[in-house]
């Protein structure tokens, strides 16, 4: 992030707002493409981080094989923008979602979903592939590796044709606990070991898909894995800096906030929890973000429209600050647009896939 250029780009705009250093973004995209290629893996970035066709198409230009999304709204927006290969990494439970998925499947689109319940697969429309989710340690979705996954996939193949079973998927979310290498090893062992059991039963397993920015750098060539799905790397955030998976100088996104009140022990800015995510702080991170150029400041607490900053070197009323959020994905989701700078004139990029219901999503 270039702080001076960021503040200059935001000067004529009301705060709070989000700014993106476009050259830093491009550098992040190129670096992850190199990481994936060195590991011999296809790159399928998770677009929930940016929710923007502008960024998604840049990821494809850097060699991504397709995109991962979390919601059907995201899938619809990216399909409309011309993305031809999409994984919906969330079980489409319920008749309404299945009907919406069926409409999406009518596009000229390579489409897949992930799930861990064969009953969910029974209602899927034709043409939608399935990746079975394995729990590699995050204890969110997924069957346990080995025999439970074998049983799950055997049940899956009773309700869908074998050719629609694409493979196995996992998310090493426990890497956010700090042991990134250990979580990456867990991802690999969970998928490779489970795939071995399936193949011994004559079941083809084409895809072994892992994901997360914290574990991405530990994917190794010859592991047997086939693709990775990092998301946060496009912008970086304070969590990633704390974990050591992203350098602060490479963070491409920040929230611009103005100091509106000053006291001997604190200052207050106009960027609260409706502008700066309160979600997901890793253990090594103090506060809700990192204030660029003010190493002594801590974003101590958030109200809806206020952030209370404490520490050393308190700024004055009227001063503008750049805050790298703790969790960038949920921060982006709070804003309708992002102000990009550093590559020509500043320009707005719509966060077009923020919506969840049909008709809400934009096209920018």
Q: How does this structure look, described?
A:
The protein has 364 residues and is an alpha/beta fold. Helices cover 29% and strands 22% of the residues. The chain is built from eleven helices and 17 strands. Strands 1, 10, 11, 12, 13, 14, 15, 16 and 17 form a nine-stranded mixed beta sheet that branches. Strands 2-9-8-7-6-5-4-3 form an eight-stranded parallel beta sheet. Helix 4 runs parallel beside helix 5 (95-105) and helix 7 (147-156) packs across helix 8 (180-200). The two termini are 24 Å apart.
Task: Summarize, please.
The protein is of the alpha/beta class. 29% of the residues lie in helices and 22% in strands.
Rg (C-alpha, Å): 21 Å
- Secondary structure tally: strands: 17
What is the count of helical runs?
11
- Beta-strand proportion: 15-25%
Distance between the termini: 24 Å
Helix fraction bin: 25-40%
The description of the largest β-sheet is: 9 strands, mixed
Overall shape: elongated
Q: How much is the average pLDDT?
A: 95
The string of secondary-structure elements, in order, is: HEHEHEHEHEHEHEHEHEHEEEEEEHEE
Structural class computed from helices and strand pairing = alpha/beta
Give unreliable regions as ranges: none
């Amino acid at each position: 992030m270039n702080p001076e250029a960021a503040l200059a780009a935001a000067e004529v705009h009301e705060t709070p707002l989000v700014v993106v250093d476009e050259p830093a973004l491009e550098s992040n995209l190129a670096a992850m493409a190199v990481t994936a290629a060195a590991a011999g893996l296809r790159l399928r970035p998770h677009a929930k981080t940016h929710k923007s066709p502008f960024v998604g198409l840049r990821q494809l230009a850097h060699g991504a094989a397709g995109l991962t999304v979390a919601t059907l709204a995201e899938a619809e927006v990216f399909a409309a923008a011309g993305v031809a290969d999409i994984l919906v990494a969330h079980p489409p439970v319920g008749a309404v979602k299945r009907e919406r998925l069926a409409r999406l499947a009518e596009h000229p689109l390579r489409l897949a979903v992930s799930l861990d319940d064969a009953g969910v697969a029974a209602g899927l429309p034709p043409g939608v592939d399935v990746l079975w989710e394995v729990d590699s340690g995050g204890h969110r979705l997924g069957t346990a590796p080995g025999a439970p996954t074998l049983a799950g996939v055997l049940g899956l193949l009773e309700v869908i044709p074998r050719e629609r079973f694409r493979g196995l998927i996992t998310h090493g979310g426990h890497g956010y606990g700090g042991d990134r290498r250990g979580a990456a090893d867990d991802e690999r062992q969970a998928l490779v070991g489970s795939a071995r059991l399936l193949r011994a039963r004559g079941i083809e397993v084409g895809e072994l898909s892992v994901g997360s920015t914290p574990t991405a750098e530990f994917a190794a060539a010859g592991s047997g894995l086939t693709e990775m799905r990092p998301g946060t790397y496009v912008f970086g955030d304070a969590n990633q800096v704390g974990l050591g998976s992203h350098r602060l100088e490479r963070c491409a996104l920040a929230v611009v906030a103005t100091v509106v009140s000053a006291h001997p022990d604190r200052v207050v800015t106009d960027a609260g929890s409706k502008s700066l995510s309160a979600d997901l702080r890793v253990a090594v991170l103090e506060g809700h973000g990192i204030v660029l150029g003010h190493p002594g400041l801590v974003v101590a607490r958030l109200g809806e429209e206020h952030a209370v900053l404490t520490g050393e070197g308190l700024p004055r009323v009227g001063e503008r600050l750049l805050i790298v959020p703790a969790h960038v994905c949920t921060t982006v989701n709070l804003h309708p647009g992002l102000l990009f700078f550093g590559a020509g004139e500043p320009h707005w990029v719509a966060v077009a896939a923020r919506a969840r219901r049909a008709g809400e999503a934009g096209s920018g």
